[in-house]
From TrEMBL:
The gene is ylqF. It is found in: Cytoplasm. Transmembrane segments: none annotated. It comes from Muricoprocola aceti. Residues 10-178 form the CP-type G domain. InterPro entries: G_CP_dom, GTP-bd, GTP-bd_ortho_bundle_sf, GTP-bd_ribosome_bgen, GTPase_MTG1, P-loop_NTPase. This is Ribosome biogenesis GTPase A. The lineage of its organism: Bacteria, Bacillati, Bacillota, Clostridia, Lachnospirales.
Amino acid sequence: MNYQWYPGHMTKARRMMQEDIKLIDLVIELVDARVPLSSRNPDIDELGKNKSRLILLNKADLADKSANKKWTEFFQQKGYYVQEVDSRSGAGMKAISAIIQEACKEKIERDRKRGIKNRPVRAMVVGIPNVGKSTFINTYAGKACAKTGNKPGVTKGKQWIRLNKNVELLDTPGILWPKFEDQAVGMRLAMIGSINDEILNIDELALELIQYLRNAYPGTLEKRYQCEEAAEKEALQILEEVAKLRGCLIKGGELDYGKASRLLMDDFRSGKLGRITLEMPEEA
Ligand code: G4P
């Protein structure tokens, strides 16, 4: 789903998250593994201070394997627990419960010293729109988990999903907004499809992607679109070749650049161009 954001939405989302965060021990922050920085909002560090933190590199199946490793190390060095996941297939999910225990070991120890036994860790999922929060909750929680309903002492209306005897998850994820002001961030979010294509210039997006792929993933365009020596050509020339190869024509036989651009973006977003990451930790 694509979202349009207005200041009113953002203020409300932030206020709700401030309330919800008071109830939890652990913030599970989903980022898109193809754009792990652009898909974050730095406000989460302020909102989630004093909480245990786990970053999930979601959609890891679409991102470059070696980049996933680099990003994992990058965030680990900053003190976060990190795990790669594919929420659609469930890959990477098995490790999460153990990581949660590890991330919350201080809280568990504090409880133990106070004589509180077996109080489950409470967690909530947060992330920008479209990053995969609902998919993650559904896959991770699975069908077997029962909702625990309202609990005494907990804000009315909050639903907790009991994942196992050690962990409870707030069933509504917290929504963060991306840093739209930054143009490069906006461009990357548009590329992964998290900004509505209708408000974008799709040709411009496709040309940017071609330029990026030519440099960062040589051979990719050649392989999928049979264009030779992409590195030597103008991005527009490559788009033209894609249009010709795929028969993107308007009445009268002229090339339909818009159609070729959409095709290219769809190929990228669905992983048909291979596993691609759009930003690297070195640039951070
Ligand atoms: P949100 O709650 O954060 O807004 O995101 P949501 O779960 O709705 O997921 C957004 C889209 O991302 C969905 O695709 C979902 O299937 C896809 N997705 C989520 N996690 C992963 C992942 O780890 N890997 C891949 N490849 N895709 C993922 P959609 O096209 O909007 O819906 P659908 O066609 O899958 O139903």
